[in-house]
Amino acid sequence: MRAIDEQTVLITGATDGLGRALATELAGSGASVLVHARDQARGAEALAAMRAATGNDRLRLVTGDLASLEQVRSLAEQLGELERLDALVNNAGIGTTLPGGGRRMDSEDGYELRFAVNYLAGYMLTRLLLPLLERSAPARIVNVSSAGQAPIDFDDVMLERRYSGVQAYCQSKLAQIMFTFDLAEELRDRGVTATCLYPATYMPTKMVTDAGVDPISSLEEGMRATLALVADPELEGVTGRYFNGLRPATPHPQATDMQARRRLRELSDRLCGFSGA
User: Fold this and answer.
1) Is residue 138 in a domain?
2) Cα separations (Å) of 138 from 87, 142, 187?
3) How many domains does the chain divide into?
4) b/e string for 241-271 if b means 16 or more Cβ within 10 A?
5) What per-residue string of b and e applies to 139-155 under the rule 16 or more CB within 10 Å gives b?
6) How many C-beta neighbours within 10 Å does residue 193 have?
7) CA atoms in the 13 A half-sphere facing the CB of 115
8) pLDDT score for 216
9) Structural domain contains residue 156
10) Does residue 58 sit within a domain?
11) Stated pTM of the model
């Protein structure tokens, strides 16, 4: 793998919490960091703070609301002129209560919001950026998931019959893991690895505090675990693994259910408009 100061890394959800901490750490190590924000104002503030803290002028803001697949596609198009992308970190996500206070909400495309933002946006963005990642090999894809995992009911993926914010969040996080395992198999001989992790327990992020949960782990702990999957030379070539912090772990059994993964892949392709691919 390249030295960290020679790498270009895209981090979604980089204006707050874990994403911001990771982006700042990588910038401090000299990496070129693509800082994703939902909107220009939030992104400009974060970018200015990172530049001031690290002295790194190789930072670039990219924007897009992940609740809109059109904007996800636009986000990928903003990166069209890049020569290389060494790592993609799908970190952006929403929790069980924020936004909506526990109410069921739809994305711009009419999909259940947590499934759309936490999983489907990352699925689409990764698929659109795969040619660039393959040209940049060796490259890494890291999906920030959770220990909170719930099996997907394929008869009611959008939770229209009975809604729970916890179920919505946990099934979206298991979907990320299922996608990671699929990617690892698909890309095994192409020089691109795919891993996922539960970075730490109840870090002091907005999604945790809004849910009324007292933080347990620090942002530093979660950032270090995520950074390892992005840049640790000892993890070169490691793929198709789920980590709890820095330790390999075993996810929900549906993650290794090949039929469930096929159904999720076919559904995701259809929802993203990739069915003819």
Assistant:
1) yes
2) 9, 13, 11
3) 1
4) bbbbbbeeeebbebbeeeebbeebbebbbeb
5) bbbbbbbbbbbbebeee
6) 27
7) 28
8) 73
9) yes
10) yes
11) 0.96
Residue 276: pLDDT band with limits 50, 70, 90: low
Tell me which H or E stretch contains 24.
Answer: helix 17-28
pLDDT of residue 275: 73
CATH number, position 86: 3.40.50.720
**Residue at 59 is within a domain:** yes
* Contact indicator for 177, 145 with CB cutoff of 8 Å: yes
**198-218 pLDDT, tens digit each:** 998 877 776 777 767 777 789
Contacts of 164 (CB under 8 A, 6+ apart): none
Residue 131 reports pLDDT greater than 90 = yes
Calculate mean pLDDT across residues 124-148. Answer: 97
User: Is residue 202 annotated as part of the catalytic site, yes or no?
Assistant: no
Q: How many CB atoms lie within 10 A of CB 50?
A: 23
DSSP of 164-195: -HHHHHHHHHHHHHHHHHHHHHHTTTTTEEEE
Pull the structure tokens for residue 269. 């392709």
Question: Of these residues, 111, 169, 198, 242, which one is catalytic?
Answer: 169
pLDDT per residue as tens digits for the range 153-177: 999 999 999 999 999 999 999 999 9
Encoding tokens for residue 199?
């970075």
Q: Distance (Å, rounded) from C-alpha 192 to C-alpha 141?
A: 7
Host domain of residue 176: 4-272
